[in-house]
Amino acid sequence: MYRCPECWQELLMRFDPCPGCQEQGVERARGQRAKQRRKNYDPVGQILSVEFWGLWRLYPVCPCCAQTWGTKEYISLDHIVPLSRGGPNVIDNVQPLCQRCNLWKSDHIIYFDRAFWGKSGALPVALWSFLPPTLPELGQLTLLEPPLDLAARYPQVTPDHLEQITLTLTRQELHAASLV
User: Fewer CB near the terminus (10 Å): N or C of the chain?
Assistant: First the structure.
């Protein structure tokens, strides 16, 4: 029996390099890359917890599933325009969701209307500059696309569908704002 002097893993025979040491090196490198990614997400600063909890008080229930904030449910800070898709880390880009809904939403651009739970609404004006650059204009929608049911709600629809509704409503507001 051989024991590696660095990672203390017991092996039947001596390996060079030790599989345990290699695995630890891979995990260490993965952790460093993740740390660097998180650091690059927010070059300006962090959202203060006081700001988030002040925003959370405006929501009596989860705006996605309408579940009341219980002691068993974790409250997640959700970015409306995800950081991975170029969204800013500012309080205007944040909505509270229960952890289950935040995992369901994933990295989709969905703004849940505070007044009507489970229903998506148009993005706030402060986030219009962070829309995807490939957003088609109103006249460019093809006839092959099925008409969107703008009253669709969670959980009957997929996150992709709610993202389309959010972007369509935002597109309509952008169009109306440009006409004024």
Answer: C
Q: How far, in Å, CA of 138 to CA of 33, rounded?
A: 40
Contact 125, 180 (CB under 8 A): no
DSSP E strands: which ranges in the chain? 2-3, 10-11, 75-79, 94-98
Q: Is the dihedral of CA 160, 163, 169, 170 positive or negative?
A: negative
Look up residue 151 and give its DSSP letter.
T
Q: Structure pTM?
A: 0.70
Angle among Cα 101, 47, 42 to the nearest 5 degrees reads 95
The tens digit of pLDDT for each residue in 42-87 reads: 555 577 888 888 999 999 899 999 998 876 678 889 999 998 888 8
